[in-house]
Structures are given as C-alpha cells and as structure tokens.
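Field log, afternoon session.

UNIT: design team B
ACTIVITY: writing a sequence onto a fixed backbone
BACKBONE:
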C-alpha cells in the first residue's frame, strides 16, 4: 500500500514516519522546498524524541521519501492524509484555507480510487467541505473518479508523539463507506496486533471526538489551577488536595497538576475553535469559556507573585528564567506561559536571562533580542535578583542549591511548576513561591 501525507509538521511527519516504520511506502509532501531538502538530508524542522532516528532509518530503506510535488506523489496512492496547519483566526475559529487548498490539489491530480483522510484537527463538518473541493476539481477535469473521505484525528502528545503513534491508546476513524473502513482497517492493522483498539464511527463524531478530548483535558487543568489559587487563599496545600482527589478512579491523577497554565499547539487552539463553533450554532459553551478565561489569568500568576514580592518595583531588576517551551521534551513555544511572563517582566522594565535545554533557537525566533540567552542554567543565575521556573525540565528538578545560592543576588525562587519541596526550601533558607501553597 502506498500513502501520501501532506504536511510535515508535528502531525504529518510523525504520521508518515511511523507508517513507514511498520513497512508501508510513504511520501511526505510539503510546499516548503527548504524543509523538504533538509528532511532528505536527515534535518528535521521540529524536535521530537526518537523521531530523527526513525526518519533517517526509514529514508535509507526507501520506505519514506519527501517531495514538494503533490501532483506526482498522489498518483496511485491508496490513501492521502491531509495534515497541514489549521491556525486560529482572530475570532478563534480554525482557518481551513490550507486544508481546502490541499483537497483541491488532490482533486486536480488524482487518477484512481483513494481515501482522502483529514488528519488535521478541524471543526465538525470540514470533511464535507473537503469532499466538495475534491469533487469540484474532478468536475472541472470532466472526470468521474470515485473516492472516499475519512476523518482520523491524532491524539499525539508532544514529547511522546512517536510512542503515542506506535502504541496508541485508541485509534479513531470516521468513515462514510464500508470500502473506506476496510482500507483504513488494513492500513492500521500493524498497530492492532497488540490489542490497541480502533473505533470506527461516522465522520462528524470522529471530528468532534478530537475537540471533546482536548477540551476535557484543558478543563481538568484549568479546574485544578482555580482550586490551587483558592488553596493559597485558604491556607490549604494543593499537593495534598491533588493526591486526595486523584485517588478517586472517577477523576484519576492525570492532568490535575497545578501550574501556570496550558499552552502548545492543541489545547488553546482547540478550545477556542470549539467555543466558536458552538456560538455559530447558537450555543454557548459556558464551561469551556471559563476554562479559557482561567487559563489566560493563570499565565499571569507567577509574574504577579514576583510583582508583589518586589512591591511593584521591577525596573532594572534581573530575573533568571528556567524553561521556555510550553512543556518538557519539546521545543514548541506556541502559547507558552513563558512568553506571557517574559512580556510582563519586560514591560515592567526588568531584564530576563533565559535558559531552556531545547527551545533556545525557537525562542530567539519568537522573542528576538529582547532577552539574554544563556549557555546553561547556572549562567542564567549569575547576578539575577530571583529565579523563575516556567517549564519542568528534568534537569531543573535536582539542582545544586548551594550553587543557586551563590550565584543569585537573593535566595528567592518563583516556581511555576511546583517541582521543589516547600519544607526543604524553608530549611535551605530560600524564599520560595509556588502554586497552590501559601507562602
């Protein structure tokens, strides 16, 4: 079976590479010529643990190839995945222009029956628009080539995307014909051998499942952050509260860690898009709107603690910032809380010295020369008035506190991820601020 994956971002590149890993011939297509040339040379546009090795291995075997020519690549393909970006518009709705442009080009070049699968996260009803674009293109060519559409949303966690694809919790596929279902079942057969479930459903339900899943996870995060803020006011310890409710199997212990808000490519965009879709149909998703509002406020919590401690005077003060990516094991800084913290500190006249194990290059692209980029975490501490932690990278979890004490001007840590023990920090003589525990 030959498949084509259009788009070489997180979703497209992981999808294409993992299908190649189980023996399927895959062509990954992108209009960015530089990106494709880099991929041919084993240079990836993203950081994702384990992905680079698989790309190089499968490229060498010939199962995985890269091209800018969709017209040539689509010929004789059994399945074509659309995995291009759907960035949020100003009103929060998902921008479908790239998805529909790919659908149009597929219709302009396909020469035999195939299944066109929407892999990008798209609003309910998008697959019908994709089908219309393909059909219109075929009509203009005067051809009657049969095809089917499907929805196959991804559930990949950045930082663990390869494992998530190769060992999925579940595979969701929306189809409208039995023939499309059989092709998709055959395609995913290598992933089902270890008992991983595949759920076939109608296309609208598959599209909705992706949004509903991310919205539920975002809700758990914002709920816990709201509870954490209340814990601080009441003198409760959010860590004990988290353990107490997490032991209830109806709730579970995942996604209930307090922090400084969620970010990344999925949760912010998908919550906004689902709220917008509901409004377009005359329905207000009041809980989700609150989830988004809480998250926006939570990104300011650490800065507000800094501002309060220094009595509102941050001008010419220097702050070490550990962590830039929205979470560990990725260089993704989309909607990262660190960006809000940096912006607020700079507006207050402070100097920011930042370090991240992976995301420094991405930070320079987004933030530019507004901050100081440090060679390591210790370098960021030198002559800083306090340390702020925005991402819970493993290397930050067990630092040498004597070195921190020596390099910082003041023994002050603002921990947005609760990675240190409050009692230990007191014993060491640090002024320690975290989330959900009264200082």
């Amino acid at each position: 079976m030959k498949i084509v994956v259009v788009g070489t971002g997180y979703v497209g590149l992981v999808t294409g590479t993992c299908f190649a890993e189980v023996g399927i011939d895959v062509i990954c297509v992108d209009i960015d010529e530089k990106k494709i040339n880099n991929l041919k040379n084993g240079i990836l546009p993203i950081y994702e643990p384990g992905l680079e090795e698989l790309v190089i291995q499968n490229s060498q075997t010939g199962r995985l190839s890269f091209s800018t020519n969709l017209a040539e690549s689509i010929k004789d393909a059994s399945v074509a995945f659309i995995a291009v970006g759907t960035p949020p518009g100003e009103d929060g709705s998902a921008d479908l222009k790239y998805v529909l442009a790919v659908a149009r080009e597929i219709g302009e070049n396909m020469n035999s029956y195939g299944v066109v699968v929407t892999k990008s996260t798209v609003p309910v009803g998008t697959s019908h628009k994709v089908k219309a674009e393909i059909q219109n293109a075929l009509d203009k060519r005067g051809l009657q080539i049969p095809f089917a559409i499907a929805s196959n949303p991804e559930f990949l966690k950045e930082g663990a995307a390869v494992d998530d694809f190769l060992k999925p919790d579940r595979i969701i596929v929306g189809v409208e014909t039995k023939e499309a279902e059989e092709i998709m079942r055959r395609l995913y057969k290598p992933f089902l051998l270890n008992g991983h479930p595949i759920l076939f459903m109608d296309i609208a339900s598959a599209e909705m499942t992706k949004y509903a899943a991310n919205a539920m996870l975002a809700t758990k995060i914002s709920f816990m952050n709201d509870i954490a803020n209340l814990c601080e006011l009441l003198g409760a310890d959010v860590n004990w509260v988290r353990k107490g409710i997490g032991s209830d199997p109806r709730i579970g212990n995942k996604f209930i860690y307090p922090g400084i808000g969620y970010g990344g490519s999925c949760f912010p965009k998908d919550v906004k898009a689902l709220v917008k879709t509901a409004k377009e149909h005359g329905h207000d998703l009041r809980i989700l709107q609150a989830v988004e509002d809480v998250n926006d406020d939570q990104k300011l919590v650490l800065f507000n603690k800094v501002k309060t401690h220094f009595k509102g005077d941050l001008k010419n003060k220097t702050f070490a910032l550990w962590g830039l990516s929205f979470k560990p094991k990725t260089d993704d800084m989309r909607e990262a809380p660190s960006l809000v913290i940096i912006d607020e500190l700079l507006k207050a006249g402070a100097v920011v010295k930042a370090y991240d194990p992976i995301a420094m290059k991405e930070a320079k692209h987004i933030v530019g020369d507004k901050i100081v980029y440090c060679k390591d975490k210790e370098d960021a501490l030198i002559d800083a008035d306090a340390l702020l932690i925005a991402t819970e990278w493993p290397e930050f979890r067990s630092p040498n506190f004597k070195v921190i004490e020596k390099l910082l001007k003041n023994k002050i840590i603002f921990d947005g991820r609760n990675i240190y023990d409050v009692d230990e920090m007191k014993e060491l003589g640090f002024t320690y601020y975290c989330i959900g525990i009264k200082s």
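LOG NOTE: Residues 360 and 419 are 21 Å apart (CA to CA).
NEXT ACTIVITY: expression trials, pending approval
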